[in-house]
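Summary for the steering committee. One of the milestones for this cycle was to obtain a three-dimensional model of the protein with zinc ion bound, which we needed before selecting residues for the alanine scan. The sequence and ligand used are listed below.
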Amino acid sequence: MKFQTAKNVSLALIMAGIMIGLLGSITLESGTSEYTFSFITMLVLVGLSLLILFVWGKCPKCKKRIFYQVYKYKKCPHCGASLTGDTKGKKGAAKKK
Ligand SMILES: [Zn+2]
């Protein structure tokens, strides 16, 4: 997965997780199984998102993990490489999952 893709996917997951969590806490009565389910779904989505960031949230150039600052930086804080997608030069050397 590309850095940019990982970033978008994790952002979407976090958004979905927060939405579900918020909707659940607003519309569902606490203590019900639906409420618990929405809460767990939120945790799972946010957890997945963090996992994606953890696994794929790396600089495409120096492979250093960026993680927390993923949404903040457009350039790698370590080596200054662009994080916004186009890595000039090598195009998809080995397809990594
Ligand atoms: Zn870097």
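Key point for the committee: DSSP finds two helices and no strands in the chain.
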